[in-house]
Each structure stands twice: as structure tokens, then as C-alpha cells.
Amino acid sequence: MRSYIVGGAVRDDLLGLPVKDRDWVVVGATPEQMVAQGFRPVGKDFPVFLHPHTQEEYALARTERKTAPGYHGFVFHTAPEVTLEDDLVRRDLTINAMARAEDGGIVDPYGGLRDLQDKVFRHVSEAFAEDPVRILRLARFAARFAEFTVAAPTMALMRAMVEAGEVDALVPERVWQELARGLMERTPSRMLAVLRDCGALARILPELDASSDAPRHAHIAGGTHVAGARMAGVIDRAAARELSLPTRFAALMQALDAEPIQAACKRLRVPSDCRDLAVMTARERDTLANALALPAENLVTLFERCDGFRKPERFAQMLLAAACEAAQPSHAHAYPQGSYLLRALDAARAVNAGEVAARCADDKAKIPHAVHAARVAAVEAILDAIRD
Question: In this structure, which topology does domain 1-117 adopt according to CATH?
């Protein structure tokens, strides 16, 4: 019975990155032997155990066989005779198919060290083609490790998988999960570029694929693929500013109209906070662009339409997303509408709606108009102060 650290923990340690979680593979053991040593079984699909002291996950070495389309269609087999190499060959990328033995030695049967040094994403075996989630995972890794490139045979394999309809078998929740994780990496445009280059973006986010302004398989200086220079700049600026997931998603989608955004969100079952902010940002794109020239009446109407009085934080998120679109590389923070609109919103929110309503006690039907008018007057006053 031998235990090995495997996968991302080995990769990140070799790259000098912090290791957050460690996964272990156990060779030469049975489930009964694991339980006898105090491990607690938790696996549903195949035997996984929690260490009695560290609570780290230990999985028995396994093989797997494809039995149906998608990523649920697998039958797993574990036995003491399954080797470490048998287990590693089923993994996605060579850089994730290395193991560290208990004595610290690296087990690298499939060239992961070489590809790590060369900064290449390469599939371990043809088994890669049996799980369409691996396309999404590779794209997500591209967003994390932006300097890595996809090996030509691996890209060809992913294109063949897309053409075979494997991506169409993915459940929406898993697609969104991987997209969301990729958007939170440091260079999200790389994820979109890889997905577009293999044809998967057109299947999972056709609205975004159609909006791209670059031809497929395009390159920019340094060999980096892009899914459109505008799109890449917007989402990478959002990442550089460490914005939240809803704000990054809104920044990415704002070039579309509200209707296709709603369609995409419904299909992928995007969480409501991401969906609502993206729809609002796209809907108000032109209004925000012209905000500096708008009268107070229009600004208050904008605040009302965006529910800014009840949800000022979401309104501020919309401005952050819009700023990513408006900024240019040489003027990364040049978005005067942001502070301008926030000052106007603060002035409007400072109006005591209760006091205004009390003055209309004899005719409650006048209350909404009176509150609106008071807010317009407050915004006019702050605009006069700003312009002076």
C-alpha cells in the first residue's frame, strides 16, 4: 500500500505557487484496508476516503470506461492491482498527471515536467476526448496560466470533440461553474479565446461568440489567442481591478443587447445577481455613455429605473463594469461618469422621502411625484456645484 500526492498540488508546487488542497491516490489497497486504518469513506462514484487526522481526500487508484455521452457516462474500477500509471493516464493534462511519492520523488510517466517547463497544455491520452468538461477545464487553466499555449494535437482533439457534439451534452450548471471560475482568474480572455478557437464558445455562448470582432484562430503579438481585442481588453481590465464575479460578467456581456443576455443566462442558469447586473449594464450602455450631458430629470429617472435607491451597491457595480468598456489602455481609469453619477445618486438618496410624503398627507396620490421632484432638485443642486 503506497500513497502519492497527485494532480494540481504537484503542479502548483513545482511552479512555486501556493498549494491550497492536496489530493492523494492510494495504490495497492482495498476499501476494507482503508477503513481498518481509520479512513472514513465518502466517495459516491468510486472509493474516496478522508484521512483520520488531516481530513485530506485519499482515492483508491482507479481506471474508468466510457459508457455514455457527456461526463456522467463512466464506469469506474478500483482494485489493488491498478497501478499509479493506470490512474494517471486517465487524467486530463500532462501537467496534472504527475505524482509525488512519500519520499518526495516525482513520478512523471507522461512528460508533465517537460510540458510544465515549456508552458504547454497537452492531453495525456485519447481518454481526454471522453469527457467534455475537460475542454472547459483546459480553457479555465488558460485563464490562470496565461503564458501557456495549447499543443496543436490537443486543440485538434478538442475541435473534434466539439464537432462530435460532446459539448452539447454538458449540463448548464457545470458549464456556468467552469465559466465563472475562469472569469475569476487573472486573464479571463484566454479562457474565451481557447473556447472560441476550438469551437466550443459557439455552442455554449453563441451570443458572445457572434459579438467577437476577431476572426477565428486569430493571434496577437506574443502568440496569445484572443476572442476579439475589445472583448479581451474589457474582461481583463475587470480582472486586473479584482472586480466581483457579477461585475466581471456584466463587463463581458455589456456589448450585447439585453435580450440575448437574458437568453444566455436562462440557458446556462446563471445566478440572478449576475444576470440582473449584466442585463442592466447592457440596457443602460448609451445612457451611461452620455451621462455627463444629461439633465437632473434624466439622471433621477435612471436611478429609479435601476432601483438605485434601494440597491446603490448594484448601481455602483454597473458603473465599474461600464468603466471597463470605456477605458482605453493609455487611460485605464478615465471614466468621469462614475464619480459623477455616484455623487448625483448620493444627493438623490439624501432626500428624506418620509418628510416629503408627510407634506402630501392630504393627497397621497401626489407622493411619488413629489418625492421624484425633490430628488431632481437635489441632483440639480449637486450638478451646479460640480460644474462650478
Answer: Beta Polymerase; domain 2 (3.30.460)
Please check if 91 is assigned to a binding site: yes
Interstrand relation of 99-101 and 74-78 (parallel, antiparallel or unpaired): unpaired
**Of residues 243, 304, 310, the one with CA closest to residue 278:** 243
- What is the residue whose three cell numbers read 494540481? 8
The model's pLDDT over 2-57, given as tens digits with 9 standing for 90+, comes to 999 999 999 999 999 999 889 999 998 888 899 999 999 987 666 899 999 999 99
Q: 203 labelled as ligand-binding?
A: no
Provide the 8-state DSSP code for 244: -
21 is in an annotated binding site: yes
Place of cell 455521452: 69
Q: Is 11 marked within a binding site?
A: yes
**Domain-wise residue ranges, the chain:** 1-117, 132-276, 284-388
Span 110-134, pLDDT tens digits: 999 999 999 999 999 999 999 999 9
- Please state whether the predicted TM-score (pTM) of the whole model is above 0.85: yes
- Whether 227 and 166 have beta carbons less than 8 Å apart is answered as no
CATH topology for the 132-276 domain: cca-adding enzyme, domain 2 (1.10.3090)
Is 140 annotated as a binding-site member? Answer: yes
Q: Is 346 annotated as a binding residue?
A: no
Rounded CA-CA distance 35/52 in Å is: 10
